[in-house]
Amino acid sequence: MNQKWNTGTYDKDMAFVSQYGESLIGLLKPEAGERILDWGCGTGDLAAAIAGHGAVVTGIDASSEMLATARHKHPQLAFILADGQSYTAATPADAVFSNAALHWLKDASGAAASIAASLRPGGRFVAEFGGQGNIASVVDTLPAAFAAAGCPDKLSLPWYFPGIAEYTSLLEQHGLTAGLALCYDRPTPLAGGEDGFRSWLNTFADGILSVLTPQERKEVLAYMEQELKPRLFQDGVWVMDYRRIRVTAIKK
Ligand code: BEZ
Fold first, then answer.
1. Which residues line ligand 1 (CB under 6 A)?
2. What architecture is the 7-135+159-191+240-251 domain classified under in CATH?
3. Strand pairing report for 78-81 and 176-185
């Protein structure tokens, strides 16, 4: 999958990603002097908010576009370009934090092993990401959209949306004791009025769409919009059917 990020659009139109993540910092309870890793930090806004509590934060992300913007916006923070499915911190951290990132790591076992190896014994893991049923409207409609555009074999989904039982047992297998674990619906309104969904697809499904010809891409976008408008477009606003998994765990 070749997902490219336009960080200008991401920060402007998808600002809700960081805004929703702020409540997760309340669960993390960062303390001054703690070493904290932000796993999939994007453009670094939540890493900066955690650092605002006096913690020493390092942001990790696999996207060079995201990290270029993060370094520009938050030059006081450390960022590392790395794959969260295989990276291990040189110095184990007090906590690993992750918002809206782990559903991009399809090798969930590799990610859990990397996170566990990057924590000190007693260190904590606090994360939120897409859970089972997340954006089901999109996931369920993409196959028909690709078929209608004449390219059903080009569809490959880049996301991992587990249920709580699956995910907590994965954490346990990697030496993490799960604490809180919940899955909840979080309908998410998009900016941009009528164009909001197209913009969302062009941002978050770019990796899926980038394998298409320009004509196929146009047809898939038009199909998705037409098919999902009756369900997701309400009073002039597209509202995405996000479903989050929120989890905490402690390294044994
Ligand atoms: C999310 O749940 O945050 C998400 C999932 C897939 C694509 C984009 C966003």
1. 100, 103, 130, 134-135, 159, 204, 242
2. 3-Layer(aba) Sandwich (3.40)
3. unpaired
